[in-house]
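Q: what sequence does this backbone want?
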């Protein structure tokens, strides 16, 4: 657990959340419910074994960051992931509610399996969550590996040339039949998921994909 200030919030919370979820406890010394929630929050975060980080912000000492994130009542708990705020709650809620809040920030079993990338793991992920975008995209990439039409685009993606891969996929849509269009869409949506919705490439190519499909 660490304390963040108006000066360090960007580094300690926003940038840090690009590496793992960060939960921020906005509190004040005079706030009774804050003292009630604090230990509950600390224990719940500790139970994640380092998967989530806890940062505390004293709203009296750091009014700018409190105002920036519209903290009106305290304790106010806000979760950050991939550089942005993704969830929040206000008030001294019970441990079961805190645990549920934290679970929502962590990868699901389907997420974990999809990230492994092998066919067995990907198929298991889809059994758990049939519409999991990253797993569906991974399976299409596995099944299309020998497809001469998709191969250049998939190779570019595998080599980390993301924009080139997306551009190649997009260029195939014009003459593609329904089955190929579906496979291209699933691969592109999977790439957007991997990049994160705020990534410039995801935003750019999501718009272009929608325009090409609809």
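A:
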């Amino acid at each position: 657990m660490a304390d963040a200030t108006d000066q360090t919030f960007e580094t300690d919370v926003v940038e840090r959340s690009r590496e793992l979820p960060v939960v921020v406890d906005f509190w004040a010394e005079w706030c009774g419910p804050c003292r009630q929630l604090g230990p509950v929050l600390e224990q719940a975060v500790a139970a994640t074994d380092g998967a989530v980080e806890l940062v505390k912000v004293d709203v009296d000492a750091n009014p700018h960051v409190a105002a920036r994130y519209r903290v009106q009542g305290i304790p106010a708990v806000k979760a950050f992931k991939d550089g942005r705020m993704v969830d929040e709650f206000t008030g001294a809620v019970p441990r079961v509610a805190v645990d549920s809040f934290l679970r929502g920030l962590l990868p699901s079993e389907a997420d974990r399996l999809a990230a492994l990338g092998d066919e067995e793991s990907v198929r298991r992920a889809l059994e758990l969550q049939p519409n999991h975008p990253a797993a569906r995209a991974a399976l299409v990439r596995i099944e299309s590996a020998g497809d001469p039409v998709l191969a250049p685009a998939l190779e570019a993606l595998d080599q980390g040339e993301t924009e080139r891969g997306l551009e190649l996929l997009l260029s195939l849509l014009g003459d593609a039949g329904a089955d190929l269009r579906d496979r291209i869409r699933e691969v592109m949506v999977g790439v957007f998921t991997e990049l994160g919705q705020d990534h410039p490439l995801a935003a750019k190519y999501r718009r272009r994909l929608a325009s090409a499909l609809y």
